[in-house]
Amino acid sequence: MLDEILKIVIAINNPETLNQVVRVTNRLSGVKIENIITNGEEAYKRIRRIKPHLVFVEAVMPGMDCVTMIDGLKRLLGKECPAFFVAYSFLPGIMSLITESDLVIQCHHFPMKDVVLAKQLEKGLDYYRGMYYIEEARRSGIGASVLSDNQAYYGEKNELRDAMRVKRIVSHELEAMGANAKLKGYLYVEEAINSELIKDTYRNRRMMELYSTVGESLGSSKSGAEKGIRRSIRDMWINGNQEYFKELWGYKVINDSNCPSNSEFLRVVLNSLEREYMM
Fold this sequence. Notes:
The protein is of the alpha/beta class. The protein starts with 5 loop residues before the first strand and ends with a helix. The chain has helices spanning 15-27, 40-50, 66-77, 95-100, 114-139, 143-149, 151-154, 157-160, 163-177, 184-199, 207-217, 222-239, 242-249, 262-277; strands spanning 6-11, 31-37, 54-58, 83-88, 104-109. It has two domains: 6-135, Rossmann fold (3-Layer(aba) Sandwich), CATH 3.40.50; 155-277, Arc Repressor Mutant, subunit A, CATH 1.10.10.10. It has a five-stranded parallel sheet with strand order 2-1-3-4-5, sandwiched between helices. It contains 14 helices and five strands. The chain is globular, with a radius of gyration of 19 Å.
């Protein structure tokens, strides 16, 4: 899998976004564009037949939105279902559902620079290859020996998610974001990321469950945890390290209009930490 050419289907309706994604993807090594579609329903049918490794899909398309597409393909294809990069030009109401899907590797706001998109796609491809490699090794029954032989790259699972190690990583990352540790919401964000990174559970549970866990841990209610996280995220987004967020999200400008939801923010940050520290 590490040396296999990855098959990609691009399903985007916006002409400018489509041209950019095709242009940048064609420059990447180890990938091949199998098909380009501009209608959601048609994309759904072709993905069923082609069974690509990855799909770059626009969040809202004529014919079928990407949440309906991903859910349908997951039920139909099971373990053969592709992973998804999602493109959007505004924050649709379904964004929280998109970012909670365990098949979505990255979400990208357009317009963005080619160099930023290329960098993020390379990170996403590396993440996909690494996770696929581990899963294939586990299914084949040789997971223990494979991972043991590649310990320098993957590390010991128990050590990677050691509570103290994770807390140091999260504390450092929040500092890099420019988070205000004096805000009460800071503790909620820190606890949410720590909890998910230590247990590797974010792909398997909903935000309401996470709010409940965080609130209980800090002696607050579920709604208190949700509000605290939301306020802290907005404060970081507007008053923190905007260059950090521009690079991670690929935005040219950081402002109120593109401030991410709780689920999107946590998903993007957790995916970034997984790639940087947990592989």
